[in-house]
Amino acid sequence: MEISLLQKALEYKCWADRRTLDAVGTIDPISGAASLAFARQQLNHMVRVEENFRARLQSTPEPHPSTHTDLVPSLQALDQRLTVSNQWLAAYASQLQTDQVHQTRSFTFVDGLRGSMTPTEILFHIVNHGTYHRGAIGHALDLAGAKRPADTYTVFIHQLEPHRRDA
């Protein structure tokens, strides 16, 4: 995968995460309690996975022994952590050198299985993983009667570059 395309995909992820976090923040905590709890659980899982993969990219110990928790952080805390994660990922990708993109990183997943991925594959996985969970959150938004944001790459790229609509 071309590095510039990977950087654009991470920019998209940041944009889509922001739209999702803002939409989750509109869920009524009383009438939409179950949907809000589900959305927070999904966001918590997303950020824990990202934080573990960040450690793998940095060759440091993983901060989380699992991808879920019994106690789920507040939406504000999850928002802060996802924002930090997105900023770090964008900075990492912008400094990634061509000769580093295919250097395999070996690690152990939280389920105990061994794995190996290149930095490019890890970053692609993080983008793809977030897309999957934002889709699940979209369903929770629907159930809560909240507005689901359009968060596809096509919407992102045409919002970023509106002249493409006229091409």
Please write out the topology.
Blueprint: H1 3-24, H2 33-58, H3 75-95, E1 105-108, E2 114-117, H4 119-144, H5 153-160
Antiparallel strand pairs: 1-2
Helix pairs in contact: 1-3, 1-4, 2-3, 2-4
Keywords for this entry:
167 residues, mainly alpha, two-stranded antiparallel ribbon, 5 helices, 2 strands
Overview of the structural elements:
This protein has 167 residues and is mostly helical. The protein is built from five helices and two strands, in the order H-H-H-E-E-H-H. It is flat, with a radius of gyration of 17 Å. The mean pLDDT is 95.
List SSEs in N-to-C order: HHHEEHH
Number of strands: 2
Proportion in helices: 55-70%
Class derived from helix and strand content: mainly alpha
Average pLDDT, rounded to a whole number, is: 95
